[in-house]
């Protein structure tokens, strides 16, 4: 498996006015745009062919992973070897391809737009709102499961039962080697109606049979074509036509950039985890928190380091 699909056609309305002219995917998370973390994750897992599903006003995403000869010449003339290598390295991460979604018809429709590029190969889908800490090799583990089981593989995480209405939730049963078998999926179930508190997060390894299912999947919740509905159909297929569907339960570090508050937490968490920035930033952060009204750290935590942690 060499191909990854990264849907990046959203309008980013939650971040207006910052996203009026700048794609949400290009908002910086410390010193890299969010989308770069996703492409690096795919490349680290051995997926060196990346298709971006884009829309209008996403040219900056395409440019970011292309060569920038004028910038490279300026950096070379200054003798700035480190930054020059950083810039050149972006174009070497993966073979980048781009296709426009055309209309905002949902995640399932975005994935369907990848059909001509993917063909009859299994492929991965990585959503840009979910950043997985590079120290946690979730995608690599999912690819290993797919190699053993075939079919499709989704990533799940446990959430508080009060939050299940925010996610697609899975009904599961134990399978071999600690892997779960998905028996059903419900997209954003009503409170109290979730099959479990196992929520689907933004990493998928899909059999190409999903494309035929998506072609006939009617718009679901929100009037959009839901990828969850297509995977639900694959889950009912036992070793044939793209099934079954297995799941990896992820308990590692995950960062959410889907809204302003979680985006800010992500920036702070990743900055604290950086060996070059973390020590000084954590020292400043502790002092800053101490100046906030009513925000004194509990005595037991006063000397504890501020560390990166998962948001869910």
UniProtKB/TrEMBL annotation:
Keyword Ligase set for record: no
Signal peptide: none
The EC number(s) this enzyme carries: 2.7.7.9
One Pfam family it belongs to: NTP_transferase
SUPFAM superfamilies from the UniProt entry: Nucleotide-diphospho-sugar transferases
Domain Nucleotidyl transferase: 3-266
Reaction equation(s) it catalyzes: alpha-D-glucose 1-phosphate + UTP + H(+) = UDP-alpha-D-glucose + diphosphate
Record flagged with keyword Transferase: yes
CDD domains tied to this protein: UGPase_prokaryotic
Gene3D superfamilies given in the database record: Spore Coat Polysaccharide Biosynthesis Protein SpsA, Chain A
UniProt keyword annotations, A-Z: Nucleotidyltransferase, Transferase
EC category: transferase
GO MF term list: nucleotidyltransferase activity
Family statement drawn from the similarity comment of this UniProt entry: Belongs to the UDPGP type 2 family.
PANTHER family: UTP--GLUCOSE-1-PHOSPHATE URIDYLYLTRANSFERASE (PTHR43197:SF1)
Protein name: UTP--glucose-1-phosphate uridylyltransferase
Organism, scientific name: Streptomyces olivaceiscleroticus
Chain's gene name: galU_2
């Amino acid at each position: 498996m060499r191909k990854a699909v990264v849907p990046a056609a959203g309008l980013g309305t939650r971040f207006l006015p910052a996203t009026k002219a700048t794609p949400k995917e290009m908002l910086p998370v410390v010193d890299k745009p969010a989308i770069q973390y996703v492409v690096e994750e795919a490349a680290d897992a051995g997926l060196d062919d990346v298709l971006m599903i884009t829309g209008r006003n996403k040219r900056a995403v395409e440019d970011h992973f292309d060569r920038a000869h004028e910038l490279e010449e300026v950096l070379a003339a200054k003798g700035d070897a480190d930054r020059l290598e950083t810039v050149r390295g972006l174009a070497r991460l993966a073979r980048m391809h781009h296709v426009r979604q055309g209309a905002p018809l949902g995640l399932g429709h975005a994935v369907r737009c990848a059909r001509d590029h993917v063909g009859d190969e299994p492929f991965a889908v990585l959503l840009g709102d979910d950043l997985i800490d590079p120290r946690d090799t979730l995608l690599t583990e999912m690819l290993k499961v797919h190699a053993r089981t075939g079919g499709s593989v989704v990533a799940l995480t446990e959430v508080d039962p009060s939050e299940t209405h925010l996610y697609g939730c899975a009904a599961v049963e134990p399978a071999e080697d600690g892997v779960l078998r998905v028996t059903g999926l419900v997209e954003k179930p009503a409170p109290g109606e979730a099959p479990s508190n196992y929520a689907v997060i933004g990493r998928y390894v899909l059999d190409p049979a999903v494309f035929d299912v998506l072609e006939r999947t009617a718009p679901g919740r929100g009037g959009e074509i839901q990828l969850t509905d297509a995977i639900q159909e694959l889950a009912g297929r036992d070793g044939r036509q793209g099934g079954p569907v297995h799941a990896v339960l992820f308990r590692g570090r995950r960062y959410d950039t889907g809204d302003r508050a979680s985006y800010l937490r992500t920036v702070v968490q990743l900055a604290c985890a950086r060996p070059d920035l973390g020590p000084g930033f954590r020292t400043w952060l502790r002092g800053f928190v101490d100046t906030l009204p009513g925000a004194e750290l509990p005595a037991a935590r006063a000397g504890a380091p501020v560390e990166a942690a998962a948001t869910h």
